[in-house]
Amino acid sequence: MLALVYDGPGSRVWKEVPDPVVQDPGDAVVRVDATTICGTDLHILKGDVPTVDRGRVLGHEAVGTVVATGAGVRGVAEGDRVLVSCITSCARCRYCREGRYGQCLSGGGWILGHRIDGTQAEQVRIPYADTSLHRLPDQVSDEAAVLLSDILPTSFEVGVLAGTVRPADTVVIVGAGPIGLAAVLTSRLYSPTHVVVVDPVGARRDAAKQMGADLALSPTDDVLAAVQDLTAGLGADVVVEAVGVPETFELCTTLVRPGGHVANVGVHGVPATLHLEDLWIKDVTITTGLVDTRTTPQLLGMLAAGQIDVSGLVTHRFGLAEMQDAYDVFSRAGETGALKVALFGDHARMP
């Protein structure tokens, strides 16, 4: 089969690799009907994730069709249309029993496109298929569903829920890429008074407003003054970091109010300074985290019921064989206006 292979920092190759096969009784093999590219994939290609080996098939997001299952699989069957979770869960270890699937102790967690071959391919092997795949309702398109592999649960769990967004809060989201925009959508579920987005790209600020942001600022604006104007000088109740660079993390810590919460979602490849000399007295909570995808069934239900509209998140569409072109567009998002790119196989179910 054809797949996108990591060939060391700065290098990716679309090439023939062996087809995946069932290796364990709990495995399923899924034909990839739709996939996408994540900012984390770009971090891998920069060399920011040294745990990814050269030769690894990248990707951790997909919708597809089950083509084979191991003898122990009971929850899905050949022919089922499924959502592939970016997190693999054994469902039995201590962390999985606590709902912390991202910390699975039995060979799960974030492994697709990281520790094992991933989803940017014609087929993918999924360990622990019963607890790592979700059967899809007919009314949900592949394009909408693939956004629930990662960005919707990530923004919801690591940003909104970990940040404890509550009604009447002022929420600031630094970064209006796909994760930041998904945080706008999911924060709105809790009726904040204000949602403010900070991003240097005008097209992304416009997209944030369309998703429900009240105010979209550039980093060159006086962001602190604008937030203080909205909050009687206090600062934001919740600040979500959705970029993963030192400057944006440090900006978040200046915008949060005493007693507030900074929820870091971005993937950081280099150290950031934690200004404890300013923060120690402010009762500020800072959380980090890897998504667990425990909310995926909840989000899938809301998507099927029309309670979440993700239609504006995908801006560019490609055939699966156009993987290199899709990477070129996504990696130059500031020039191309790309938010989320989607790639479709021959059997994809379109809107």
From TrEMBL:
This is Zinc-dependent alcohol dehydrogenase family protein. PANTHER family: NADP-DEPENDENT ISOPROPANOL DEHYDROGENASE, ZINC-TYPE ALCOHOL DEHYDROGENASE-LIKE. It comes from Nocardioides panacis. It comes from the Bacteria. The keyword Metal-binding applies. Belongs to the zinc-containing alcohol dehydrogenase family. Keywords: Metal-binding, Zinc. It holds the Pfam family ADH_zinc_N. PROSITE patterns: ADH_ZINC. InterPro entries: ADH-like_C, ADH-like_N, ADH_Zn_CS, ER. GO terms for molecular function: oxidoreductase activity; zinc ion binding. Its cofactor is Zn(2+). Residues 8-343 form the Enoyl reductase (ER) domain.
